[in-house]
From TrEMBL:
Protein name, UniProt field: HigA family addiction module antidote protein
InterPro entries membership: Cro/C1-type_HTH, Lambda_DNA-bd_dom_sf, Toxin_antidote_HigA
HTH cro/C1-type domain: residues covered: 20-68
Alphabetical list of PROSITE patterns matching this protein: HTH_CROC1
Length: 86
């Protein structure tokens, strides 16, 4: 069953990882080895979790690569529904 308005991967990361570990976006970017703008786009829902990014996030945050890709796919389907309904 499809989730209603699923969280973006970035929202999930903020809720699940940032709150539990008390880290900043800058620290997270350093752990991922990506630039601050890339981290900000991801966390603000403007960037997508690509397979390569899913590998990095999985290594740092945990959860499987597939789970990050599925979370992105759920968000993509939700956004497509919104566009189709407009």
């Amino acid at each position: 069953m499809e989730m209603y308005n699923p969280p973006t991967p970035g929202e999930f990361i903020k809720w699940w990882y940032f709150d539990a570990n008390k880290i900043s976006a800058r620290q997270f970017g350093e752990q991922l080895d990506v630039s601050p703008p890339t981290v900000n786009r991801l966390l603000n829902g403007q960037g997508r979790i690509t397979p390569a990014m899913a590998e990095r996030v999985s290594r740092v945050v945990g959860r499987s690569v597939d789970s990050w890709i599925r979370l992105q796919e759920m968000q993509d389907r939700w956004q497509e529904r919104l566009r189709s309904a407009a």
